[in-house]
Amino acid sequence: MLAINYITEALASIGRSTNAMFASIGRLVLFAVSAVSHMLRAPFYPRELFAQLLKIGYFSLPVVGLTTLFTGGALALQIYAGGARFNAESVVPSIVAIGMVRELGPVLAGLMVAGRVGASIAAEIGTMKVTEQIDALTTLSTNPMKYLVVPRILAATIAMPLLVLIGNIIGILGGFLVGTLRLDFNAAAYINNTVDFMEAGDVTSGLIKAAVFGFIVALMGTYSGFHSGRGAQGVGQATTNAVVSASVLILASNYLLTELLFPT
Amino acid sequence: MSPQPKIALKGVMKAFGSNQVLRSVDLAVDKGSSLVVIGGSGTGKSVLLKCILGIIQPDAGEILIDGATLKNREEFLSHFGMLFQGGALFDSLPVWHNVAFRLRQGKAKLSKADAQELAIEKLRRVGLKPETAFQFPAELSGGMQKRVGLARAIASEPSVIFFDEPTTGLDPIMAGVINELIREIVVDLGATAITITHDMSSVRAIADHVAMLHAGKVRWHGPVGEIDTSGDAYVDQFINGRADGPIESVR
Fold it and tell me: Residue A165 CA to chain centroid, in angstroms?
């Protein structure tokens, strides 16, 4: 009898968790649909959009630049060491370039922006919720979805491809610096190899990924902030949720997008 | 025949999970009248205000504005102002922009210069200097933030104003100043006002009528002049701040 009770309790617990998970997914999907529908209907807040473009795009440049610079350098060292095992050291420029623009540029930039911007959005909106600023917006005839959510999602979706484009160039520069200064590649040959082997599809696929990652980061940040619990603990939890969920979704969607963009 | 109330609640109910906060609330506020809702913490006073505003949807009952259910919330909100408990000022905007926020939205929005001029005028109305307009909310004291919140609430000269615990966290002198300001503003604008508070000095300074909320229902409702002779043990205990009485106090 006791064993049956334990099994029933365990099954009920699994059921509750599954229900809660589907309810959360449903809420997130409804939130995303509502945000997208508000993007298409006036009023618009161009000033807010511009402010968010600066905040999300311009101010993320140092962290994305440093991340891709060091990653490009490390990638050059790794590919050189790996390539040396079968006398293929010359592939370093092309593999660094393709690796950066297709995968590492968008994914690393996405993860860094999730940490920097996703957390900041969740904390800001969560605090606004806790201090009734979101209710105040409503009473001042301003739709919080239009004023707070839409500018952030649009800005992140626009800014991320630009960030990744610049990050890619800096990452390739990192590989170039390590290749020429540390691994004794000829500078002109390194640049020629980089340019010759890269195709337009390599770059555009990375930029498409970047736009999707930007959307995910801002969506999870705004959603977590809007559903923040009370007090400092609630806002802290919302911030953690925003970063963790955005990071996991970026990695999962990266795989799906790679399958879609580069079918084998 | 009594005039149609500006705001009327009929059988409004709201629960959060198993917690039944409002259990059939009936209440009416006449046009141009000031109602103060009193009651202990957690009795659903703020929920009541948010139900009227449509921020929270009631589970049952009717909320009537000018005798009709609210069909166009935007229209209602365009003639509405609210002072929030903590001020709820937007941290990222200077004070003048907070005050003139509503007037900087929409097709008929004011220019920056006009908005600043109007904000300074409203700030002066609540006893703040023009320089305050160019400060950020974080640079102001609690009392000044409340005044800025008040200036924002009256910026568009609303016909309905809600005050959510207007004197919480203020010293007695500042609380007195805010109470006087609220009374003056409500009278000057001829607005219909609902205030929720625990503070009996606010009640006596602001109210025309008082309603006491207890256990999710309106326990007593009457003119402020009759509150001391209500004959209701719950009201007596609350207004005199006694620990002993029918209202349970958790120790």
Answer: 14
CATH class of B1-79+159-246: alpha beta
Residues in B touching A139 (Cβ below 8 Å): 53, 77, 80-82
Q: Which residue of A has its CA nearest to B101?
A: A140
Q: Would you call B86 an interface residue with chain A, using a CB distance cutoff of 8 Å?
A: yes
Helix (H) or strand (E) holding B179: helix B172-189
Chain B residue with minimal CA distance to A132? B88
pLDDT in tens, A209-262: 999 999 999 999 999 999 999 888 999 999 999 999 999 999 999 999 999 998
Inter-residue long-range contacts of B106-115, CB under 8 Å, 24+ positions, other chains counted: B106/A43, B106/A141
Q: What ipTM was reported for this prediction?
A: 0.85
Q: What is the C-alpha separation between B73 and A263, in angstroms, rounded?
A: 50
Is the Cβ of A139 closer than 8 Å to some Cβ of chain B? yes
Global pTM exceeds 0.90: no
Spatial strand order in the sheet of B209-214? B80-83, B160-164, B192-196, B34-38, B209-214, B217-223
Q: Does A135 touch chain B (CB under 8 A)?
A: yes
- What are the residue boundaries of the structural domains of chain B, listed by start? 1-79+159-246, 89-157
Residue A133 Cα, gap to closest chain B Cα (Å): 5
Is B72's Cβ below 8 Å from some Cβ in A? Answer: no
**Which positions in chain B touch A131 (Cβ < 8 Å)?**
86, 88
Chain B residues lying within 8 Å of A133, measured CB to CB: 88-91
Q: Which of A239, A245, A243 is nearest to A122 (CA)?
A: A239
Q: Token pair for residue A98? A: 């393709």
Distance CA A31, CA A126 (A): 15
Residues of chain A in contact with residue B53, where contact means CB-CB under 8 angstroms, are 135, 138-139
Q: What is the pLDDT of residues A53-87, one digit of tens each?
A: 999 999 999 999 999 999 999 999 999 999 888 88
Report whether B132 contacts B148 (CB < 8 A).
Answer: yes
